[in-house]
Amino acid sequence: MKKWIILIIISILLTIGIIIRSNLSYILPWNIQKSWVNRIKSKEEILVYDFINKKLSEDNYGIYTNYLKENSDGDITKGHDVLSESEGIIMLYAVEEGDKGLFNKHYEIVKESMITKDALVAWRKNKEEKSETSATIDDFRIIKALIYGYSRWGDFKYRKTAIDISNSIYKNLIVNNRVIDFKDEYGKAKDTTICYLDLNTMKLLSEVDKKWNNVYEDSIALIKKAKISKELPLYKKVYINEKNFFEESNDVDMLLSLITILNKIEASEGKEEISIKWIKKQFDETGVLCSFYDINTGKAKTNVESTAIYSTAAMIFSELGDKTYYNKMLKKLQTFQVKDKNSEVYGSFGNAETKQVYSFDNLNALLAIQRR
């Protein structure tokens, strides 16, 4: 009889141990190397924030993808559909701003209307339905915002949601320690887009859950392989995992390369000196950073610029503490802001004539200007 009692006690203790180990990520301390400060908003920041808040979003629904009301076309999102991308960016802005009300408003939108059956975040929704497809880059961004929110305000619900989503990413979107792009109703992506590898978020997660260490190391190794050359120190776009090579392309996407560079710098994985030197040289010689460059010659393939490019470049120079080039990027960025008070889209970063104003551009501009 005593043996049975001992066995039962041992069984109970083992069960308790398993439960504790599987839930440590919810309780272990987080060492988040950030300081929270109170700021004074610039005029440009107030203008774009007011436009987003008053004309590009709707209470209890989210931020519109575009100011104009159009129907989305397949994977091309238009009009008043809401992207997880937008919700994550505004949450990052809110936590840096110390605006818990704004943060909580968008947290509730994500929590109540964008969580999929797999406990990931729907990449897109409208008032009729939400997608059952995720986007790993956007899920990581939301997790980062939630971790920062927990750090700043100590609200456990933010931490719990961050861990819940991260556990689902690990279950559904990590294959042999490799991050993949998405999961939908039909299966999983087979490829890895390099700029999706949010190293900083993975590093934060690894502090409370060691299983993320191997994912982080794999991501670092893949990013290193993706760098094109010393002569063109930008990054290839997509790695095809089943074939173990990068997708062939004659173009280099400047924005996606800048996001990758920012990911590395934010995670303290080097200062990307060669890439930064190349970016500065391009800007100083031509006065612009273009959307696409030739992978063989390193020359611009288009004269198209974008708000998002200058916003991301500004954030890179802010992270590096390079005020000179941060201000150069900010000055260039501000040329895209609509300053005509009579315009319907006054204060936004968009096209005053066509009224095409996209959330991604405006939200990234908001993050960049916030760092002033």
UniProtKB/TrEMBL annotation:
The keyword Mitochondrion does not apply. Gene3D superfamilies: 1.50.10.10. InterPro entries: 6-hairpin_glycosidase_sf, 6hp_glycosidase-like_sf. Signal peptide: none annotated. GO terms for molecular function: hydrolase activity. It comes from the Bacteria. Keywords: Hydrolase. The keyword Hydrolase applies. GO terms for biological process: carbohydrate metabolic process. This is Glycosyl hydrolases family 8.
